[in-house]
Amino acid sequence: MDSSLRAQMCLQTACKDIFELAKSYAYDYTDKVYDRKVSPSEDDIERLGVLEEPMPETPSQPTEILHILHAYGSPAMVAQTGGRYFGFVNGGAIPAALAAR
């Protein structure tokens, strides 16, 4: 890995903004998960087409990547918060286990 990329990664890790954004998206998901249908709609699946693009030549902004994953990926996921999810077989989850995950 070249030193400039490593330096960028170290700065992003040190400032913690990316982790705060991930935390806010996780809270948004858990706040809304019980109001969602279990399986995604066909429209949600179709919107995943936004992810079909050529591999970028240069690094992307991590906040933009998280935004795309949250905006398009989260709605296309099976709505569940259990830590023991195996396809359509669900186990239970308590808040402490979910937070640890």
The coarse overall form would be flat
Task: Tell me the helix content.
Answer: 40-55%
Mean pLDDT over the full residue set = 82
Structural class: mainly alpha
Number of self-contained structural domains: 1
Low-confidence stretches: none
**Amino-to-carboxy terminus distance:** 29 Å
Proportion of strand residues = under 5%
Largest sheet: 2 strands, antiparallel
Strand order in space, largest sheet:
1-2
What is the helix tally? 5
The strand count comes to 2
H/E series: HHHHEEH
* C-alpha Rg (nearest Å): 16 Å
Provide a quick synopsis of the model.
The chain is mainly alpha-helical and 101 residues long.
Written account of the structure:
The protein has 101 residues and is mainly α. The protein has one domain. Helices cover 52% and strands 4% of the residues. It is built from five helices and two strands. The protein has a two-stranded antiparallel ribbon. Strand 1 and strand 2 (89-90) form a beta hairpin. Helix 2 (17-32) packs parallel to helix 4. The chain is flat. 0% of the residues are buried.
